[in-house]
Design brief:
Order of helices and strands: HEEEEHEEHHHHHEEHEHEEHHEEHEEEEH
Number of helices: 13
CATH class of the domain at 10-71 and 232-246 and 277-405: Alpha Beta
CATH topology of the domain at 10-71 and 232-246 and 277-405: Beta-lactamase
CATH architecture of the domain at 10-71 and 232-246 and 277-405: 3-Layer(aba) Sandwich
Protein name: CubicO group peptidase, beta-lactamase class C family
Strand order of the largest sheet: 3-2-1-16-15-14-13-12
InterPro entries: Beta-lactam-related, Beta-lactam/transpept-like, Diverse_Enzym_Activities
Organism: Actinopolyspora saharensis
Shape: globular
Domain Beta-lactamase-related: 24-398
Structural class: alpha+beta
Radius of gyration: 20 Å
């Protein structure tokens, strides 16, 4: 497969080449001192790639460099893909955002909310509100992740085998059934907590469509957008292109993650709509260009432009900021001034976070320090790909953002 390339001179799309050099200079230091194995940065403006740089190694031990066609585990950057899939069904009239999830997954028919007590003997009460589709899209369902380690319900998830993976032999349907048996952190719609909600949403997509999630993605998203490298596993013939996965040690240096490196080399039992995909810069760039294009790319339309606009507004109750409504789960960047839409964080008041950005910018990232954002005001998309866990190990996103915006000079 051919290497991805820049499509236009940086200056032709309002990017100063000398100022762009600051991006490479800054993140080259991350590789030089061992904080990152390697990375890729892609900046596109007005629909054209004006900046593309790779640095360091996709596999340090094998001496293989990051290249423009390297495949990365994108983890939670899967969530926007699942959200788009659900909204495609919404546009077809096959679901409503206010539908109870139990209409499709009956195991969620009687949710209960944690009140107090230890994980081994929690006290609960009936939820005041059903879990609805929009709660899944906005992470306001009351679900959680076992790796948070801040609430007794998080511990209950871990006790059931849901921490950095899934119990042996579990599939997506089985995972959803297990989560439905555990209490919620809060009444649906009353707070925000980053969670397995998008995995549950993926299961809803399966039930409504009658397809497995990988089939639905392939037929309705990946093939229409010509995303050739994106899926739940890397074909054996392409495994050399897959970047190795690293974890940060106590000093913040990248150390090969032997256990999780095997993941993505074979089709998983749990098709995680919340974090299961691998992709390349070319493919995810095409996905972000579809979003920037109001749901369409090169004559292929996945969503209506009004739908994309609706998804990228703040849907939190009362128009709240994440900083005000979130329960305290991890975040790689400041949540001040940010809301949450249907699958994306939404930057409503950039000055609140004290990080250079545009109002209306929407974004998300992945557990291995990958990140993207779309800025409709500047007709800008940005993609950062690397493979270091956790994503909170270094302030990559808050450093990258001003480095990109300071290079805009038109």
């Amino acid at each position: 497969m051919g290497q991805l390339q820049t499509e236009v001179a940086a200056g032709d799309v309002g990017l100063d080449p000398d100022r762009l050099q600051r991006i490479e200079d800054h993140f080259a230091k991350y590789v030089a001192d061992g904080r990152l194995p390697g990375w890729l940065v892609l900046i596109a403006r007005h629909g054209k790639i004006g900046y593309l740089r790779t640095h360091g190694m996709r596999d340090v031990e094998a001496g293989l460099p990051v290249e423009s066609d390297t495949i990365f585990r994108i983890y939670s950057m899967t969530k926007p893909v699942t959200s788009v899939a659900a909204m495609m069904l919404y546009e077809q009239g096959l679901l409503q955002l206010t539908d109870p999830v139990a209409d499709y997954l009956p195991e969620f028919a009687q949710p209960r909310v944690y009140v107090n007590g230890p994980a081994e003997a929690p006290q609960t009460r009936p939820a005041a509100e059903p879990i609805r589709i929009w709660h899944l899209l906005t992470h306001t369902a009351g679900l959680t992740y076992g790796f948070h380690r801040i609430h007794p319900v998080d511990q209950m998830y871990r006790q059931r085998g849901f921490e950095a993976g899934y119990p042996e032999g579990t599939d997506l349907a089985g995972a959803c059934a297990a989560w439905a048996e555990l209490p919620l952190l809060f009444d649906p719609g009353s707070s925000w907590n980053y969670s397995v909600a998008t995995d549950v949403l993926g299961r809803v997509v399966e039930v409504i469509s009658g397809s497995t999630l990988d089939e639905f993605f392939r037929e309705n998203v990946f093939e229409p957008l010509d995303m050739r490298d994106t899926g739940f596993a890397v074909p054996e013939s392409e495994l050399e292109r897959l970047a190795a996965l690293y974890s940060a040690d106590r000093e913040g240096r990248a150390v090969r993650n032997t256990r999780l490196n095997r993941v993505s080399s074979h089709q998983p039992r749990v098709l995680s709509g919340g974090g299961g995909l691998v992709s390349s810069a070319r493919d995810y760039h095409r996905f972000t260009q579809m979003l920037l294009g109001g749901g369409a790319l090169e004559g292929t339309r996945l969503l209506g432009s009004r739908t994309v606009g609706f998804m990228t507004r703040n849907h939190l109750p009362g128009g709240a900021d994440l900083a005000d409504i979130a329960m305290g789960s991890f975040s790689e960047t400041s949540n001040a001034g940010k809301g949450f839409g249907l699958g994306f964080s939404v930057n409503e008041t950039p000055q609140a976070a004290k990080v250079l950005a545009s109002q209306g910018q929407y974004a998300w990232g992945g557990m291995a320090s990958t990140a993207f954002w779309v800025d409709p005001a500047e007709e800008l998309t940005v993609l950062f790909l690397t493979q270091l866990m956790p994503s909170s190990a270094h302030p990559i996103r808050t450093q990258l953002q001003p480095l990109v915006y300071q290079a805009l000079v038109d």
